[in-house]
C-alpha cells in the first residue's frame, strides 16, 4: 500500500488560498515591471529638471559660467526638496537633495566672494591703473601685494631717500606716489623720478646677484613726496610664492630701468615724454643700472672724467634721436 503524505502547500492550494500565498511568496512572472506606468509627476519636479538642463548646457566660455551653473543647480535642488516634501513624501529624496543644495550654496558663496568688488586705497589707484591693471593683475592680488609688509612713507622737500656709499640697498623697494625726486652723483644731476615710477629699481635688480651693497647715487626729494615702500626680504619671499606676480615685477622693473637709462642719456626728458616711452622696450631692459653706475665710478675718478661721461651720454642721446628721425 503506497502512502503519500500531503504537504500543507498542496492542501492550501486545494482549499483555494492561492491568491493569498501569491502575495506572500514570490511567483515567477514573464510580465515586465514597467507594463503599467505611473502617473506624471508634479510640475515642480519638471521645473527642477529644466533648471538642471539649463545649467548643464551653459557654455564654459561664458564669463560667469561657474556662478550660473552653481546657481541653477541650487535652484533645481531646492525645487526637488519642495517636490519630495510636499508632493511625494519621500524622505530619502528630500535628504539627498538638501545635502546637494547645501554644497552648491557653499560653492556659490565662495565664487561670489571671489568676484566681489575689491576696494583699492585712493592713493594706490593711480599705481594700479598705470602699472598693474594693463598687465591683468586682479584687484584682489594687488590688494594682497600692497596689504602686507608694505607701508606709505613721506619725505619733505630736501630730505634724502638714499645717500651714495652710505645707504644700504638691501632694505626696501619703493614706488613714488606723489612729488618728484632728484638723482645725483657727486653733486651732478643725473635724472628725475616721477610718480608711478620705482625709486630704486636698479638696486633691486643688483641685489639679486650681490648682497650688502650701498647706493652709488644720492636720491633727494625735490618736492614733498609720498612713496609706497616694501620690505625687500619679505617682498622677495612673497613673489616666490606668486610666480605670475614675480614675472610682472620682472617686467615692470626692467621697463623702469629702461626709462631711467633714457632719462639719464637725455636729462631734459619730462614726465610726459617718459610716459611715451612706457610702451617702447629695447635691449636696455637687459642691462643693469648698477653696471652703468659702476662705469661712472671707474671712469670718473676726477671731475674731468665725470664731465666726459656726461658729454658722452649726451652725444649718445643725440645720435639716438638722429637715427629715430
TrEMBL record:
Keyword Glycoprotein in annotation: yes
Pfam families: POPDC1-3
Keywords from the UniProt entry: cAMP, cAMP-binding, Cell adhesion, Cell junction, Cell membrane, Developmental protein, Glycoprotein, Membrane, Nucleotide-binding, Tight junction, Transmembrane, Transmembrane helix
SUPFAM superfamilies in the cross-refs: cAMP-binding domain-like (SSF51206)
Keyword flag Translocase: no
GO CC terms in record: bicellular tight junction; lateral plasma membrane; sarcolemma
Highest rank taxon of the organism: Eukaryota
Location(s), subcellular: Cell junction, Tight junction; Lateral cell membrane; Membrane
Domain POPDC1-3: 41-266
Recorded topology in the membrane: Multi-pass membrane protein
Signal sequence, start to end: none
Segments crossing the lipid bilayer: 40-60, 67-87, 93-113
GO biological process terms on file: cell adhesion; heart development; regulation of membrane potential; skeletal muscle tissue development; striated muscle cell differentiation
GO molecular function, one term: cAMP binding
Main location: other
Family: Belongs to the popeye family.
Protein name (record): Popeye domain-containing protein 1
Origin species: Bos mutus grunniens (Wild yak)
Phylogenetic placement of the source organism: Eukaryota, Metazoa, Chordata, Craniata, Vertebrata
Gene name of this polypeptide: BVES
